[in-house]
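Section handout, structural biology tutorial.
Before the tutorial, make sure you can parse a SMILES string by hand: atoms, branches in parentheses, ring closures as digits. In the record below the ligand is zinc ion, and the chain has 408 residues. In the tutorial you will relate the predicted structure tokens back to the input. Do not try to memorize them.
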Amino acid sequence: MPRQSPVLDLWASAPVAHARATLRARDADIVASQIEVSEIEAPTGDERRRGAWVAERFRAVGLRAVRIDDADNVIGRREGAAEVAPVVICAHLDTVFPPGTPVRVRRSGPRLVGPGIGDNGRGLAAMLALAEVIDGTRVRTHAPIDFVATVGEEGTGDLRGAKHLFDHAGDARAAIALDGAGDERIVHRALGSRRFRITFRGPGGHSWTAFGVPNAVHAAALAAAKLARLPRPATPRTTLSVGRIGGGIAVNAIPEEGWLEVDLRSTSVPVLDRYEREIHAAARAASDEENGRRARGTLPLIESITRIGMRPGGDTDAAHPLVAFAVDTTRLIGREPELATASTDANVPISRGIPAIAIGAGGRGGDAHTPAEWFDNTDGHTGLARALAIVIGAAGLATGPLAALPVA
Ligand SMILES: [Zn+2]
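Predicted structure of the complex:
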């Protein structure tokens, strides 16, 4: 008899079959907890109330050493059979919606509609469901699993929670981020981004009587023009965009200050490094050019650059067993795997050499980051079973031939 694939072995094993059946039976409860968590406001930087709710659930399902760290991440552990580095499963707590956004979830036909219902109400509810079915007895893994609800994943959060977690946690054998709905995407390339604010400061003055002093807004505009003209590599896809520009106090005043904000993205760290140097060079060249025009005896412009955002990039090789296992599991449930690039909590472990991916947590969704965000739970439990199998594949099962399975 030909040997089955490891994915099939795992899928059909008694503990995983039991856990899959439980997920299926608890489908409606899982959606109910998804609604409940989505209705707790959690703007980036103010995730505490939602975090407290998750901590209580972690304790209720018997995770060990449940705690809230200095960044406000919520962490709980399910012990494995071996004392080895854990697999980290994370889901972000925060949403892009500012305080005061109505977060009530409503039904519209087969859909649930509400801000954050998928991103990341679904990821959080799925993480809790997995923490419950991987109970440490009937379903016992080889490696321990750390379940983590992270803060600061969206926008200006700059992956603050994941950075703090991987700065302070010990080593991890793998990390899997549950983010939003879906059961096809496997994010294994982490889109890195760096954001800068360039500021020019000069003497300023009256636009007629002081004319000849260097103009900080002219310098900002020159810098923007230089950045707009920079050639970019064909691969990897790299983007550089001036998102905001400003300065000055009045149309008839030479501004003392001019500034611009720049967003740079690529999956390649060397490319990000190179363009960061280009941004510094463009700022310096803009100062030089504007100072070259200044009247004798006036003060020069000075430029400064601050990093206002930094998301590390990189990738987990498509051939890595963690990615391959996720691909095979996705096929097993009858979906077409889609290897993808995105900026998620997985960026942080990936950038530190820990094999990591981000996956959807089942069901369908759309209009994320808008108040019309929706979630449709059709086949939702199948997506949960996929996530379960990928997580257990990374941690290994405690007993039987599958103990040798760990993919990470
Ligand atoms: Zn998300």
